[in-house]
Design goal:
Length: 204
Amino acid sequence: MPDVAVHNSVVAAPAEAALVNVLGKRSVVLVGMMGAGKSSIGKRLAARLGIPFVDADAEIEAAAGMTISEIFARHGESYFRTGEARVIARLLEGGPQVLATGGGAFMNEDTRASIGAKGISVWLKADFDVLMRRIKRRSDRPLLKTEDPAATLKALIAARYPVYAAAELTIESREIPHETIVEEIIVGLRGRLRRDPAAEGCAL
């Protein structure tokens, strides 16, 4: 089971500290497909900003005492989605933080509204080939345990990408160093937060 939360002791640079100051109690919420890099990039982003990293799926597993795959197998997807929405709503009260969400979380209208009210959503957008290469390395993707995982992934992309597009920032997740993507997220956050009334007088 992955770590539930990572609390970073690294002190953020002045520019990042100013960004976090404007962020206030809001979370930076990473959304996107399985394999988009939400956890690996999220941990690096949190370290850069000097705030905690929290993985929603890990929190769900800790609360349930079983893995995501086991929850799906025993109770079904609908049960999982209900619990997922409840956990994310609770986690959003704990900002500032970098919060990585499961691939289907942003599809829930109430969850999107909660993220919009208490966070800034960042879509890590990866194309099919990138996702397929990454998820082949993992066997814990319950939605892809089908006769044709590639077709299933394409169907999920078709259904989810129009909804993910509602995120406040879109960053391309591709096969480059994660630190480069982290820098792109920070640049995007600065641009977004400069328009925030709380940013007046801050050197973002």
